[in-house]
């Protein structure tokens, strides 16, 4: 079975500060990993994905994430937060090589940007 | 336009009524999913489908029924709505069960 743990249901940073959202996963096989963003009253939008190529993955809106196998982590970062980054962020894992039941999602982290 | 469309966006229904949430995708993706999103629980899988006429239960299937007679449609039916089914429902599709999923805008359902 696979699972995802997102540390911190709420993270607050100042505008211009570093954003760090933590995600740890467990998977019995090499995983595919994803970060999604959800703005109020909208669906989930893919930010970035890791599918066993480069371990440092760049996504949209200046976000990036690094896959660290030894730490089973896939933390999301952005060097400088913007007010428009305020949203809910979800980490997800998929099983490479199959898994018809789709991605397993973490419970989400609400990112708050302080002016 | 290509994409995944859910309808209605908002629905209020009474306890005991049957209600169907619609989902339509234009990518011809094989896989489709229904999730519910509740505060503190994140996204929980209700049902999924690997192809037309193939469906299976997810984490929280009780009280829900799905069908998939056509690849592009995956309706979710609440046979007898209960207050505990008040939630935001998301439909998603993907090329495979492990690759990125594409989400609809969601349906906010309130059962009174």
Describe the structure.
The complex is a heterodimer of chains A (115) and B (112). Chain A has no helices and 11 strands. In chain A, the strands form 2 sheets. In chain A, strands 2, 4, 5, 9, 10 and 11 form a 6-stranded mixed β-sheet that branches. Chain A is mainly beta and 115 residues long. Chain B has 112 residues and is mostly beta strands. Chain B is 0% helix and 52% strand. Chain B has strands spanning 4-7, 10-13, 19-25, 31-38, 42-51, 54-57, 64-66, 76-78, 87-94, 102-103, 107-111. In chain B, strands 2, 4, 5, 6, 9, 10 and 11 form a 7-stranded mixed β-sheet that branches. In chain B, strands 1-3-8-7 form a 4-stranded antiparallel β-sheet, with no helix packed on it. Chain B starts with a strand and ends with a strand. In chain B, 38% of the residues are buried. Classes of the chains: A mainly beta (115), B mainly beta (112). The A-B interface holds A 32, 34, 36, 41-46, 49, 51, 90, 94-103, 105-108 and B 31, 33, 35, 40-43, 45, 48, 50, 56, 58, 90, 92, 94, 96-106.
In short:
The complex is a heterodimer of chains A (115) and B (112). With 115 residues, chain A is an all-beta fold.
The tally of strands of chain B reads: 11
- Assembly type of the chains comes to heterodimer
Tally the helices of chain B.
Answer: 0
In this structure, how is the largest beta sheet of chain B organized? 7 strands, mixed
Proportion in β-strands of chain A: over 45%
Number of β-strand runs of chain A = 11
The biggest sheet of chain A, with number of strands, parallel, antiparallel or mixed sense and barrel status, is:
6 strands, mixed
Bulk shape of chain A: globular
Largest interface by Cβ-Cβ < 8 Å: A-B, 26 and 26 residues
Question: Rough shape of chain B?
Answer: globular
* Residue windows where pLDDT falls under 50 for at least 5 positions of chain B: none
How many whole angstroms does the radius of gyration of chain A measure? 14 Å
Mean pLDDT of chain A, nearest integer? 91
**Helix content estimate of chain B:** under 10%
Structural class of chain B: mainly beta
The poorly predicted ranges of chain A are: none
């Amino acid at each position: 079975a696979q699972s995802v743990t997102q540390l911190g249901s709420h993270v607050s940073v100042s505008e211009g500060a570093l954003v760090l959202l933590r995600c740890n996963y467990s998977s019995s096989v090499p995983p595919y990993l994803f970060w999604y963003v959800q703005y109020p009253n909208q669906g989930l939008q893919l930010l970035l994905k890791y599918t066993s190529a480069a371990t440092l993955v760049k996504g949209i809106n200046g976000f990036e994430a690094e896959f660290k196998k030894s730490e089973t982590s896939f933390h999301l970062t952005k060097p400088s937060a913007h007010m428009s980054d305020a949203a809910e962020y979800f980490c997800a894992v998929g099983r490479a090589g199959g898994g018809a039941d789709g991605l397993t999602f973490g419970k989400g982290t609400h990112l708050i940007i302080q002016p | 336009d290509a994409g995944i469309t859910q309808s209605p966006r908002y629905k209020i229904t009474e306890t005991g009524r049957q209600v169907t949430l619609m989902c339509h995708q234009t990518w011809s993706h094989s896989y489709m999913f229904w999730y519910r999103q509740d505060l503190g629980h994140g996204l929980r899988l209700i049902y999924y489908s690997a192809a037309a006429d193939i469906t299976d239960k997810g984490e929280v299937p009780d009280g829900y029924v799905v069908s998939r007679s056509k690849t592009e449609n995956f309706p979710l039916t609440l046979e007898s709505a209960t207050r505990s089914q008040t939630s935001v429902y998301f439909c998603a599709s993907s090329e495979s069960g492990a690759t990125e999923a594409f989400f609809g805008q969601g349906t906010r359902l309130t059962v009174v």
